[in-house]
Each structure stands twice: as C-alpha cells, then as structure tokens.
From TrEMBL:
Domain Radical SAM core: 42-261
Keyword set, alphabetical order: 4Fe-4S, Antiviral defense, Iron, Iron-sulfur, Metal-binding, Mitochondrion, S-adenosyl-L-methionine, Signal
Pfam families documented for this protein: Radical_SAM
Protein origin, superkingdom: Eukaryota
Keyword S-adenosyl-L-methionine: yes
Keyword RNA-binding: no
UniProt-listed SMART domains: Elp3
GO biological process: defense response to virus
Reported cofactor(s): [4Fe-4S] cluster
GO molecular function: 4 iron, 4 sulfur cluster binding; catalytic activity; metal ion binding
Name of this chain's protein: Radical S-adenosyl methionine-containing protein 2
UniProt signal peptide: 1-21
Length: 341
C-alpha cells in the first residue's frame, strides 16, 4: 500500500508542479487511495474510542456516556486489551469517558504504553479540560498527539445551564489550549450543538483558540444513555434541536477551515466505541459485544454494528500525529495564538 501511495504522490508532483497548494493536493490523493484500499479490506479497528471510565466531575444534561458503572480495568488488563487491538489493526486510540483525567495515573501510563510499546500512530484524549494540569503534561504530554476539549458555549452562564461545569469552564478551556501549545499537542475543540447554544456566534472565539479541528455534533438522543426512560440516567429531550437549527448553526460557522459538523446520521454507528470493560457498544441498538479480553476482536466486532463507510465519510482518517507545526494548522493566525501564551 505504501508503494502505491508513494507512486500516487510522485505522479501528483509531476502533474501539479511545485507550488504552494501541492501538499494539500497530495494529502487528498493519499487519503483517496487509502480510503479505496480500506473499503476493500475486512473490518479493522483502525480508530478506537476507549471510554476507560464512565465517571465524570461534570453533569451535562445531554451526556451520551453516563456514569452507569464506576468500573475501570487494571493497568495490566487495559494494556493487554490495547495490545490485542493493535494486533487487530488499530492505528489510533482515543481515550474518552466520562472524564478520563479522573483516572490520571491509568491514563498517563496507558498513553505511554500506546506510544512506546505499541508504537501507535496517534493517541488522543477527549476531556472537559477541568483536570488537565501542567504537571501531567510535563510527564506524559510527549505521548499525546491530540487533546480534544469539550466546550459548548463562550458564555459561561450557558455552559453552567447545560451542566458543563459550574460557571468557570472557559478558564479550563483556555488553560488546556495554552498547555497544548506549550507541549506541542494538537488542540481540538468539541461542541455539542443544542437548544441553548445553536443561536450563538462563536467565530471570534474559534479564531482566538485556533483548534486544528472543531467538531460540532448535533445533540443526539440515545435511548440507553439519555433517552429519559428507566434504563437511562439523563433525559436529553429539552436539549434537542431540529435539523434546520443545526444547519443554521453550521451556516454561521462553516467558513472556519477547522469546522467539522456531524449531524445525528453521521454520528450513529460511525464510531467504534469500547466501554470500560473493553466491550464494543452499539448504542443505537442498545447492545454490547463480549469483551475483547474474552473473545477475538473480529468476533466481538460481529456483535455490534460499525459502519465503515460512514466512518470514512466523516473524515475519520486525517493528519493525526503531533508535530511542531500543530499551531499553524486549523483556525486562526499566529498573532491570535500569541494571546494564549
Ligand atoms: S463532560 Fe462529557 S462525560 Fe462528563 S457529563 Fe459532560 S458530556 Fe458527559
């Protein structure tokens, strides 16, 4: 595959000539070639979201992954599971929760293991940002490619209304962005577009924070997590928005080059979700697989729906490794980035 990609790369240089935008064209060609090859192959867990804990120090009203258990695996078991996934074809691992920084020691040691022992291409973490510290990143930041911080509003009253903190969330977001810059980690922003923020204009703040990707999810209802029934801990109904409200939000922000919208359709079954016991989850169908610590990855994958076409369609494979130029990508310019230093 690499030879094929290399040939495609050289052909692109020959055809397009040496100019500024050639690297973008080549990246696109490589992406198309990789995508075509991936479609032909059997299902491989290329990019996995490992929700190592369901516990969280926040209480967002629409939470998609609620504190139904307080379990976490031991470091040894988690390492075994991650090694199994690597063997099955995993290239990127995203640590998620709950709030993964509630398990700081476990998180840090697993990040180190993924990079040093498994040599994964990319390790990322999704966090609400409130527990991220300089000391943690000083010790483990070298093993992290991407940090995604959740922020739904640039008005802290709105964040508090949602349950995203108690009124000081923006301090945490800005601190996390600055720490990412300090330690060469790509900074990403995640926003859940819901009834309380769909009307907001966030353009100025996006240019200030300069995320390299800004994921904007249409608030999603999942019966097993936030459906409001007996089996769920949340009722998302007061947060849901219509498709046209989501489109209005997207139209207001789509000129930001880091902007990546995901409507409900794009989200469902396009993520490979591994829960705190290392079972794959099909949240839409309310089923989970056996743990990959007990059965093979392929066997476990057969027990849930994971749509590889939707996975590829939502731009799930991208430049996901840390690099010195991380702050030069995405939104904003260097002058605005200096405001964070
Ligand atoms: S920060 Fe994330 S995990 Fe925690 S309550 Fe909010 S959405 Fe759920």
């Amino acid at each position: 595959m690499r030879l094929f990609i290399f040939i495609a790369f050289m052909v692109a240089i020959f055809i397009l000539g040496p100019c500024e935008w050639i690297s973008r064209k080549c990246e696109y060609i490589i992406f198309v070639v990789e995508t075509k090859i991936l479609r032909r192959r059997s299902k491989k867990p290329i990019s996995v979201n490992y929700h190592l804990t369901r516990r969280c120090n926040y209480a967002c009203g629409f939470c998609f992954h609620t504190a139904k258990t307080s379990n976490t695996l031991s470091l040894e078991d988690a390492m075994i599971g991650l090694a199994i996934l690597k063997d099955a074809g995993m290239r990127k691992l995203n640590f998620a929760g709950g709030e993964p920084f509630l398990e700081k020691e476990l998180l840090g040691e697993l990040m180190k293991f993924c990079k040093e022992a498994l040599k994964l291409e990319s390790v990322s973490v999704v966090t609400n940002g409130s527990l991220v510290t300089d000391a943690f990143l000083k010790k483990y930041g070298q093993y992290l490619d991407i940090m995604a911080v959740s922020c739904d509003s640039f008005n802290d009253r709105t964040n508090a209304l949602i349950g995203r903190g108690t009124g000081k969330h923006l301090v945490h977001v800005r601190r996390a962005a600055a720490l990412c810059q300090k330690y060469g980690i790509k900074f990403k922003l995640n926003t859940v577009v819901n009834k309380y923020n769909w009307n907001e204009n966030m353009n100025q703040y996006i240019q200030e924070l300069k995320p390299f990707r800004w994921k904007c999810f249409q608030c999603l209802q999942l019966a097993s997590e936030n459906g409001g029934g007996d089996e769920s801990l949340r009722d998302v109904s007061e947060y849901l928005i219509t498709d046209s409200q989501f489109k209005e939000f997207c139209d207001r922000h789509k000129h930001n080059k880091c902007f990546l919208p995901e409507n409900n359709l794009a989200m469902i079954n396009s993520y490979l979700i591994l829960d705190e016991s290392m079972c794959f989850l099909d949240k839409d169908a309310k089923v989970k697989s056996q743990s990959i610590l007990d059965v093979s990855v392929q066997e476990a994958l057969k027990e849930v729906r994971w749509d590889t076409d939707q996975f590829l369609a939502r731009d799930a494979i991208y430049d996901w490794q840390r690099n010195a130029k991380a702050h030069k990508q995405g939104c904003g310019d260097d002058k605005q980035a200096k405001n964070l230093e």
